[in-house]
Amino acid sequence: MHTSTSAPSLPQVLVVGGGIAGLAAAARLSGADGSTPTARVTLVEAGPRLGGKLYASELEGIPVDLGAESFLARRPEALALARAVGLGGALQPPATAKAAIWTRGGLRPMPGGHLMGVPWDLDALAASGVVSAEGLARIAEDRTMPATEVGDDVSVGDYVAARLGPEVVDRLVEPLLGGVYAGHAHNISMRAAVPQLLAVAQRSGSLVEGVRELLAAVPANPAPVFNGIDGGIGRLPVAVAAACRAAGAELRTGTPVRALRRTPDGWRCLVGDEELAADAVVLAVPAPAAAALLAASSPTAAAELAEVEYASMALVTLAFRRSELGELNGSGFLVPPVDGRNVKASTFSSNKWRWLAEAAPDSFVLRTSVGRHREDQDLDLDDADLVARSLGDLRAAAGITAVPFAGTVTRWRGGLPQYPVGHLDRVARIEKLVAELPGLALCGAAFQGVGIPACIASAWRAADLVQGALRTEGTMNA
Asked: Is residue 1's pLDDT more than 70?
């Protein structure tokens, strides 16, 4: 295994997985993010590139993101990492956050005054036309209903439907949650996905009034809610990888791991016919891959990890001649599953990102997303069929009749972990079992959040855990 000559006394840590979580862990351990170096790092990634679901590419010379396109800016982790690897000047908020919902036969404005689709401003909701008169009357019953018992956890869809009726779930909560998890509101844990809403549910009678009070108590924050990066979010893992290499870390792609075992001196990782030795290991891989690697060392933890389900989805990215399009406003639209469309959302990327509009002023890039948890059959269609279905929906929703001059389909199979009721209890059990294996830590989207900042936070926590274990074992210098 490669060792850095700059710090020969530091322990060796192996990071398995080269997505943003693995890269963030490698950066923290090697000091590439500006922290104090605490280990010599080797990172191995099974695939041909680093970055995981963050993937910057080009479409006929136009820079595009073929994976995640933004991150939550109200959390500090992604901002801090981007700045640490030299991308601070490239951070850019969306040029517009004005989204629509394609439902009831047209594009309707996303109503303001809600928390993940749970409304408090019923006037704005009524004006949007998203919910019917009957649905609005059902919401009004929330104020006089007795409190609904929720316990420690409940599905978002079940609770909101019980308080406000099914229309709010079908037309608002489902498309918003589906955009984050590619899942279904009736299967998603409130405690894991929207914990602030659970706090409201546990103390309030009226859900509408509880959400109103919660949001009224939040101080005004002029900072953008989301941020992108000039040239694409996919630049972030590239920059982190470069910083890791500059700090002495070794990063290998095309390096699948076959087995992992604990030894008296640390850990051994079998890569092909080669055995890599390490004092500690960070597993930054999806739950099924972690389960396979831990089957021998901790069968119970492996069994828990194997229970984590994933959703698959596809992104259809299309480029049009601007002169051939009519006027397209806003950042795009969401689609309630109840409407039975092919796509679940569309992003008008050239409207949303100033850097993209400037890079290709004569073109207009947009993308659609297809697929939800246990509804991924469309991903088996060929690219031409997925593009045709997307174009059909774009024509019906936004009147787009132009033919794109370029397009690509990106399939993310097993891309998004699902957070059902009880998910955080499972995570706690896994972490307790893994803590019994000295010098091992897990991180990634399967645990404490699927967003980029949450993945980075989990990576930093994993780095802290292995650093603590190495100090306890006396491997790391004080």
From this structure: no
Cβ neighbours for 248, distance < 8 A, ≥ 6 positions apart: 4, 6, 7, 30, 37, 40, 41
Q: Give residue for tokens 């049009």.
A: 320
d(CA 471, CA 155): 41
User: CB–CB of 175/101 below 8 Å?
Assistant: yes
For the residues of 175-186, what is the DSSP string, one character each?
Answer: HHHHHHHSS-GG
Give the single-character DSSP code of 143. Answer: G
Which fold, 112-216?
Answer: protoporphyrinogen ix oxidase, domain 3 (1.10.3110)
Assess contact for 25 and 15: CB atoms under 8 A.
yes
Q: How far is residue 56 CA from its own chain's centroid?
A: 16
CB atoms < 10 A from the CB of 456, how many? 31
Instruction: For 80-107, give one letter per residue: b (16+ CB within 10 A) or e.
Output: bbbebbebeebbbbbbeeebbbbbeeeb
Contact, 367 vs 316, CB < 8 A? Answer: yes
Residues 6+ apart with CB under 8 A from 287: 305, 306, 308, 310, 417, 446
CB contact at 8 A, 210 and 70? no
Each residue's pLDDT tens digit, 360-410: 999 999 999 999 999 989 999 999 999 999 999 999 999 999 999 999 999
DSSP annotation of 51 reads B
Is a pLDDT exceeding 50 seen at residue 146?
yes
Kindly report the CATH number that applies to the domain delimited by 12-51+233-308+420-473: 3.50.50.60
Q: What are phi and psi of 196, to 5 degrees?
A: -65, -30
* Exposed / middle / buried, residue 253 (Cβ in 10 Å: 0-12, 13-18, 19+): middle
What's the CA gap between 448 and 424, in Å, rounded? Answer: 8
Q: What is the DSSP letter of 307?
A: T
State how far Cα 458 lies from the chain centre. Answer: 13
91 contacts 80 by C-beta, under 8 angstroms: no
Nearest C-alpha neighbor of 336 from the set 110, 143, 172? 172
Residue type, position 287, single letter: A
Q: Where are the domains of the chain?
A: 12-51+233-308+420-473, 112-216, 311-416
Please name every residue paired with 118 in a beta bridge, in sequence order, or none if there are none. 115
**Topology classification of domain 311-416:** Polyamine Oxidase; Chain A, domain 2 (3.90.660)
**Res 344: pLDDT:** 96
Q: Which of 106, 97, 124 is nearest to 332 (CA)?
A: 97
